[in-house]
Specification:
ten-stranded mixed β-sheet, two-stranded parallel ribbon, 11 helices, about 20% strand, disordered N terminus
Amino acid sequence: MKKTLALILTLALSLAALTSCGSKTETPADTNTDSSAQTEAPATLSGSVSTNGSTSMEKVIGALSEQFMADNSGVTVTYDPTGSGAGIEAASNGSADIGLASRALKDEEKAGGLTETVVALDGIAVIVNADSKVENLTVEQIGKIFTGEITDWSEVGGDAGTISCIGREAGSGTRDGFESITGTKDACKLDQELTSTGGVIEAVAGNPNAIGYASLSAVEGKNTVKAVTVGGVACTEETVLNGSYAIQRPFVLVTKTGETLSDAAQAFFDYATSSAASQLIKAAGAVPVAK
């Protein structure tokens, strides 16, 4: 009888030990399951971003928008090419998330509650035929050439010959920038108005008496034309960045001071002003400012 009781007691103790071990192995598994269930996947960016303004910024904004939407399929970025003034007003009245301007904001616009962020600089090279003896022109001389006050290359140190001015078509952002800086707005007398930068470069390359203008990025590495120095300063990425090259202007993102953008708009703004966008901006013909 005693042996039987001892056997029963031994079996009971063994069963209790097994039950205790089983519960210890289940606890960590349960904890891990709960922790996993509490982990949330990152939210996907979605919504729309409206930009409005400078026609000169079309290529830059187009390139940035295309890449941003490719990286964020839930976001749509729109661009309304209404001009700098209208873009500044759109940012001010809230009809656009981000205004676009190809000029710096005026003091009164900043005082009125707007903030400017320079996203890029636009360097416009003045080009002549590769065989031209002319190496340097002042902004004043360039203005007089394009308005017809100076008509012969011999007046500015070149061989005698009638100057042929080549420019872009009305509405071109490059033309708008060039004319604004040289003081030739609506006063240029052009022998040819062409619809592309490549067309201007080709025309100048084929005419020993020609002069034209093109974005810095388009003439870098070209040996068929020559970019003259302006006031003794070459058109390079460095001189555009440090402000010593005269024929340039800023590309500006305009926002309301102190007002929070939507998540999508803020993400686009952050991307456009980051170094990640620099190559796209350069390929679009502008000089990126982000380091």
